[in-house]
Amino acid sequence: MPDLPRLSGAHWPGSAYRRTELPERVLQFGTGMLLRAVSAASVDAANALGAFRGRIVVVQSTPQGQARAINAQDGLFTLVERGLEHGAPVERTRLVGAISRALVADTQWPAVREAFARPELQLIVSNVTEAGFRPDGSFAARLTDLLHWRFTRLPEGPPVYVIPTELVDDNGPRLAAMVERLADGLERGPAFREWLRRQVRFCSSLVDRITTGTPARDVRAALERRLGYTDALLTVTEPHSFWAIEADPNELRATFAIDVQPESVSFAPDIGFYRERKLRLLNGAHTATAPLALLAGVRTVREAADHPQLGAFLRHILFEELVPATELAADAATAFARTVIDRFRNPWLDHEWRVIATNQTAKLRLRVVPALVEFGRKRGGAPQGLALGLAAYLRWIRSRPGGDADLPLIDRHWRAADPDPAPGPVLAAAWERLAASALPDAELWGANLAELPGLLEATTRWLLSLERDGVAATLEALRAMPEHAGTGRT
Known about the structure:
With 490 residues, this protein is of the alpha/beta class. It contains 21 helices and twelve strands.
């Protein structure tokens, strides 16, 4: 079979919208699959309907990224949607043309500044992960520099909307506060802060679409043979896609008219319902299960959802612990939880737990700790499944896996509990010291977890069970508990 050509601008259909004639109206920090599957796909759909008419300049803000591939393919990539809808398999493929080019922040910052000084570019979208979404991170400093540059070059220009998509509560106001603090150190700080308040809208947002890494080689090869070209940015995702942006709908629509399909993009004055639903249920279930699945040697979410023990664990924490720990109406929360199980069982997505567990400490703090607190407040006891997930994290993190910016925060507790670790099993006393040291650490968790009724005892018990009996027997012990009764929902 002859070599396939690489995807390029020549593959853009002549019948499609004239993408090269559209102005650059969005600056996007992040070259990853999630923003391609949500931000770029949403802009592309709005362009196709003639509603938005704009393109995205992508900024690669880390040494690793896809800027080179984006430019080599003239900004094009293929979106493949595969999954179940109402129990039936679906597959849709489309070429996305919303991206114009990519710039590398480390080496092309003047070009990024130049792009943002143009009046027609009024939107910044970001996804720098929870770990990068920090006051001391490079993104906050770069964003502040960009806004200050526009302040000095285009002070009377049109308003700017900044839309972070990182999975952090109130990500808009939090990012605004970071920029406000950094503004003090810049030239004409007071005037700049006043301009920020007048000209810049920081909008909280939430994205909900499961995207995974590059498909396996044989799957990718089969897709590319069907497409007739190779695509270094081939993006495989689930059919479900939702992006909620918190803003005055009419004001935002005047600048960013991409809510052409309300089931996919929604502008609302308050997105709390959507955030609670997704962060606490879908992401909370992912985060609470990841260390347990990794300890059990289960590779993907799909395998865990179909696993007799881990599947039961997932259903238990979703319906019996996470749903009751939300502020959502019970019917709405339960209905969404059912869709979560279906999405986890998607036969075409290889969503690996090792990827989900990246920056696991921050994810636990943001996604699971609020459920632990709320469950304790409502029920007066510890959620046994989430306590087991917390114990599995404390055990798993000892292997010191990479990709956790908060590793020093938990590692200090390990050093205190077991200062001279020897090969082989960990003594029960060390596990007890670890739990007693780590759970009260409010700097680590944002709350003193030892104050929650029964949580320290439950976590310690599960730590000892994991050490003594292993994952399978511990999961069976959870299933045998009275709290597990009735967890047979699918």
